[in-house]
TrEMBL record:
GO cellular component: cytosol
Name of the protein in question: Thiamine-binding protein domain-containing protein
Domain Thiamine-binding protein: 4-98
InterPro entries on file: MTH1187/YkoF-like, Thiamine_BP, UPF0045_domain
Lineage: Bacteria, Bacillati, Bacillota, Bacilli, Bacillales
SUPFAM superfamilies in the record: MTH1187/YkoF-like
Coiled coil ranges: none
NCBIfam families on file: MTH1187 family thiamine-binding protein
Family: Belongs to the UPF0045 family.
Length: 102
């Protein structure tokens, strides 16, 4: 199981607000979550997505395309992937591990 930290940045929006684009991305993520492919967590600065690596790439491509579907002509997407293969790793287990040391 891999965890991706993803930020989709629409460039050239009419206003400084990007909340409508974030909401569209969240709708896509909810669909993939309903299919059981991923889990995700919205943060104030990015979205964390947990799933099998092929599913993550599929989801990331879908959310990268989202602003283009709303008329944006340029999108920058930042991706950071943590893919641990020696043991199962989830967003929840990573937090529990850190909290156990406090």
């Amino acid at each position: 199981m891999a965890i991706a930290d993803v930020t989709v940045i629409p460039i050239g929006t009419e206003t400084a607000s990007v909340s409508q684009y974030v909401a569209a991305v969240q709708k896509i993520l909810k669909g993939y979550e309903a299919e059981g492919k991923i889990k995700f967590q919205l943060t104030p600065m990015n979205t964390l997505i947990e799933g099998e690596l092929p599913d993550l790439f599929e989801v990331i491509q879908a959310i990268h395309e989202s602003p283009f579907e709303k008329g944006i002509q340029r999108v920058a997407t930042n991706i950071r992937i943590d893919d641990r293969r020696d043991k199962k790793s989830t967003m929840e287990s990573k937090l529990k591990s850190v909290n156990a040391h406090q």
